[in-house]
Design goal:
Length: 218
């Protein structure tokens, strides 16, 4: 066999080998294969967020009608003093009501003087002194507050002065005895409902966080 024939056979064998290897790697196509799926393209659109801005402040509208003058006043208070909370204010007002009312009933106003405006303190002192002049001794037991609600609120942006009127319905047992021990007021065995509207005031944004009782009524 000639050398040229041998070289031709070797080259043909190499070619057949390469064709077989390519088929094993790439496979065969019948003409019906689906085209390769395009590579996913990242969505470059801005993400959508459902953002609600300026929603209702339930710390306010849970206590006064939305859109009312009182609601606007409370909102202004929060703008000046963001830490102010209506809910916390009412909790403090609840405690102050019991403390001040019982101090008045017992005739000992010294512990509550810092929480009373001058006019209110003078009126309370006058009532206590009149009771003592009659020789009366009062006994009282506070049973609790049955209802508490904001009646009104005002705010002066120029001075920062805030006022909140709160309606209380409390229950207590109270009676007054004269020097001979006779009951002249109240009933030591009956629960009395006490209804009051007290107005508290303070300057928002100031250094003193305490509210003062500036007016009383029914």
């Amino acid at each position: 066999m000639s050398n040229s024939l041998i070289q031709l056979l070797v080259l043909a064998g190499i070619a057949i080998f390469l064709i077989i290897k390519l088929k094993s790697v790439l496979g065969t196509r019948s003409g019906y294969e689906k085209p390769p799926a395009p590579a996913p393209v990242a969505d470059r659109r801005e993400p959508r967020f459902d953002v609600i801005e300026g929603g209702a402040d339930h710390d306010i509208i849970d206590h006064v009608p939305q859109g009312s003058d009182a609601a606007r006043a409370l909102a202004q208070m929060k703008e000046v003093e963001p830490s102010f909370s209506v809910q916390r204010f009412l909790a403090g007002a609840r405690s102050a009501y019991e403390m001040i009312l019982m101090a008045f009933e017992r005739g000992d106003l010294d512990p509550v003087r810092p929480f009373l405006a001058a006019d209110v303190l003078d009126a309370f002192v006058e009532a206590v002194e009149a009771r003592r002049a009659r020789g009366l001794t009062v006994t009282a037991e506070f049973l609790g507050i049955r209802d508490i609600a904001i009646k009104d609120a005002t705010f002066d942006p120029e001075t920062g002065e805030a006022e909140i009127a709160v309606r209380f319905v409390g229950e207590l047992i109270s009676s007054a005895r004269d020097a001979e021990g006779r009951i002249v007021e109240g009933n030591p065995n009956a629960v009395r409902k006490q209804r009051d509207v007290w107005t508290f005031a303070r300057r928002m944004g100031g250094g003193d966080p305490n509210w003062q009782l500036v007016a009383t009524g029914e």
